[in-house]
Design a protein that fits this description.
Blueprint (H helix, E strand, L loop, with lengths): L15 H14 L4 E2 H7 L7 H18 L9 E2 L12
Parallel strand pairs: 1-2
Helix pairs in contact: 1-3, 2-3
């Protein structure tokens, strides 16, 4: 089954969402943003589909934060091309 981006369904590696949340919390404390490829590199997310894994993890984290009424740390990840805003699909 394909998703809304017509990309293959890629599973989120175990522990990636927790690592992502910790990484973004550090960025938030420093009042910094980052971009998708930088997140993949910082968290050692390897190809294939490394950016899709990051995006799926960001979606999961955003859903959790929204459900808990917490700030969306996922908004700290912006497009390098369209900085300082998140990429389309956010």
């Amino acid at each position: 089954m394909s998703n809304r981006h017509d990309e293959p369904e890629v599973p989120i590696p175990v522990g990636l969402v927790a690592a992502l949340e910790a990484h973004l919390a550090q960025l938030a404390a420093r009042r910094e943003t980052t971009h998708y490829l930088a997140v993949a590199r910082a968290l050692a997310v390897r190809p294939p589909h490394h950016l899709r894994k990051v995006m799926r993890s960001l979606e999961e984290l955003a859903s959790r934060h929204h459900a808990a009424g917490q700030p969306l740390l996922s908004a700290l990840v912006v497009s390098r091309v369209r900085a300082p805003i998140p990429a389309p699909g956010f």
